[in-house]
UniProtKB/TrEMBL annotation:
This is NAD(P)H-binding protein. Residues 141-257 form the Quinate/shikimate 5-dehydrogenase/glutamyl-tRNA reductase domain. SUPFAM superfamilies: NAD(P)-binding Rossmann-fold domains. Pfam families: Shikimate_DH.
Length: 360
């Protein structure tokens, strides 16, 4: 039986109160200080995962009680010690590979230094996240009857690891891509690289999100911002918006106010195995996980015990490779979902017709 571990952490302060109700009555700074003193804990036990190849999988979810603000703003050497302790716990449990969840993969140098300090391979999961996010986005665009050959796509967070790879994949399908990020020099360099590889498409860039989003038929949001950055009025009727970021780049208000826009969760994956139990409530139905966790599980099942995805860039060839390995081991997109709720063809058709009316 193969074994893996995956590191998770609270995405917002409210998550402390869900796990420890007493914290809702305490000052947030006091709660954060207290949990900064705590080491990693075993938060869940994954069982019952069976690949069609016959391979079985067991895993552990290891919790670090640190918010995104702490992970991003604390000295990286301190964060690194916390992550190293988590991986060492994973090794004691028997894990052969460890995945980094949410902001643990963003802090510092995206796992590179951590991988040099521990005895098991590390992966961020960003390759499979990219593969499934783009796959789901393009499938949804077809359902919304968007002509991909004429479509305009915008990637928010384009210079990050997922955003960069997603942009290259989208550039193979659409007429125009617009890149959004905070740093102009990084945007210029990425735009030049895309133009060199795909001279037939138009490439724009901007640091202004509404300007980039308003004309877009397709939006992929993968910014590492810790708050929502896309507002309801920013979006074009009929747009497909895939929110890959955690915490989300889009607020629920977008879905509630814009019935003519298809908002999707990015990278929610169905895990193989009739009795698969994730051992933790991620807010999904049973047997569903984020794609970054799924990548770790796929690599374990395949016996690819290596640092598959690390650092600030993703090899597009690896994105395709992990998608094929996912198919081999029975992992698949969990249909279309938004804000943890499944949506069916009839709902997509209602959105498409509402978009047609709004554009008339």
């Amino acid at each position: 039986m193969r074994k893996f571990a995956f590191i998770i952490h609270p995405l917002r302060f409210d998550d402390f109160a869900r796990k420890y109700p007493i914290t809702q009555h305490l000052p947030p700074k006091l709660v954060e200080w207290a949990f900064k003193q705590v080491g990693p804990v075993t938060a869940g036990h994954v069982t019952g995962v069976h690949s069609p190849t016959g391979e079985e999988l067991e895993g552990w979810l290891l919790g670090l009680p640190l918010t995104p603000d702490i992970l991003l703003n604390a000295p990286y050497e301190w964060v690194l010690k916390k992550l190293t302790a988590s991986v060492q716990l994973a090794e004691k449990l028997g894990a052969e590979i460890v995945g980094l969840g949410a902001f643990t993969k963003i802090a510092g140098d995206r796992g590179i230094t951590l991988s040099q300090r521990v005895g098991v391979p590390i992966t961020t999961g960003n390759s499979y996240t990219t593969a499934t996010a783009v796959q789901g986005t393009l499938m949804a665009a077809e359902r919304m009857q968007i002509d991909l050959g004429q479509a305009r796509a915008t990637v928010i967070g384009a210079t990050g690891s997922i955003g960069r790879a997603a942009t290259f994949l989208l550039a193979e399908q659409v007429r125009q891509v617009t890149l959004v990020s905070r740093t102009e020099e990084d945007l210029k360099a990425l735009a030049a690289e895309i133009r060199a590889r795909h001279p037939a498409i138009k490439v724009d860039w901007t640091t202004h999100i509404p300007e980039a989003v308003r004309p877009a038929d397709i939006v992929v949001a993968v910014s590492s911002a810790t708050g929502t950055i896309v507002e309801p009025d920013d979006l074009k009727p009929g747009a497909v918006v895939t929110d890959v970021a955690r915490p989300r780049n889009l607020s629920r208000v977008v879905m509630e106010q814009r019935h003519d826009v298809l908002v999707l969760d990015g990278g929610v994956i169905q895990v193989p195995g009739e009795n698969a139990d994730m051992g933790f409530d991620f807010g999904f139905p049973p047997k569903m996980v984020e794609a970054c966790m799924a990548e770790t599980m796929i690599l374990a099942l395949e016996g690819r015990l290596e640092c598959f995805t690390l650092g600030p860039t993703i090899d597009v060839a690896r994105v395709q490779e992990i998608r094929e390995l996912g198919d081999k081991h029975g992992f698949s997109l969990a249909g279309f979902r938004r804000f943890e709720r499944a949506i069916d063809d009839s709902e997509i058709e209602r959105i498409r017709l509402a978009a047609r009316s709004a554009s008339a």
